[in-house]
Specification:
About 30% of the residues lie in helices and about 15% in strands. It has helices at about 65-80, 95-110, 115-120, 145-160, 170-175, 215; strands at about 5, 20, 25-30, 40-45, 85-90, 185, 190-195, 200-205, 210.
């Protein structure tokens, strides 16, 4: 999956970059794709890592997508061919895209640059970002911020619920799909969250599938 942008038409938006690692890693929201610039490498995951909403929800991206983002960014930072180049992660300017991108790069800072949630979010503190919305068609009665999500991620790491060193991304992505069970381990082998079972197996035809206990039993 080639996520490096080699073409584009916009460079003025790069004046508003957010520095993540001094003189090395940046984030910027742009319209279109950044124009190539000497000494820089640009990448985006807007098309490759998408949030699939139910209703008015738009993020944040799931753990499998966060894992893939982190692995991609680590690879770029460690690439000997890019040692002398500044790396710019960019996203679209839409508020939902900016919120998801801010979560990804802030989570990376927290997980791999050993920052606290507040330290990781600090470069974005003045940015106007929408709160995340639950998976309903109604107005939210609470405001879940990017910082809230970072604090939750930090707690999960400290409690040992999340360990990207031993994260099985293929298994995670397989079983999160509705037709494969639609479940995730909250605490591995102890606490499982899933949407089911139901008394009958039904397929609505529009992507909604219900599974019975008999469908889940073979996994265990």
């Amino acid at each position: 999956m080639d996520l490096l942008s080699r073409r584009g038409s916009e460079s003025r938006g790069l004046k508003k970059t957010v520095e993540i690692i001094k003189d090395r890693l940046y984030y910027v929201a742009v319209k279109g794709e950044p124009a190539p610039q000497e000494g820089y490498i640009f990448f985006s995951v807007d098309r490759e890592l998408e949030y699939w909403n139910f209703f008015l929800d738009f993020g944040p991206l799931n753990l499998g997508q966060l894992f893939k983002f982190c692995q991609l960014l680590i690879g770029l930072l460690k690439d000997p061919a890019l040692t002398d180049r500044k790396i710019v992660y960019y996203s679209a300017r839409r508020k939902e895209k900016r919120a998801n991108a801010t979560f990804l790069i802030s989570a990376f800072s927290m997980l791999y640059l050993h920052k606290t949630p507040k330290e990781a979010f600090y470069p974005f503190r003045k940015n106007s970002l929408p709160p995340f919305h639950d998976a309903t068609p109604f107005e939210c009665t609470y405001k879940l911020t990017v910082l809230d999500c970072l604090k939750g991620l930090d707690k999960a790491v400290k409690m040992g619920f999340l360990d990207f060193d031993n994260f099985q991304v293929e298994e995670y992505e397989f079983y999160e799909r509705v037709e494969n069970g639609d479940f995730n381990w909250i605490i591995q082998d102890k606490f499982l969250a899933f949407a089911g079972p139901f008394n009958r197996k039904e397929d609505s035809g529009d992507g909604y599938l219900t599974l019975t206990p008999e469908d889940y039993i073979p996994y265990f």
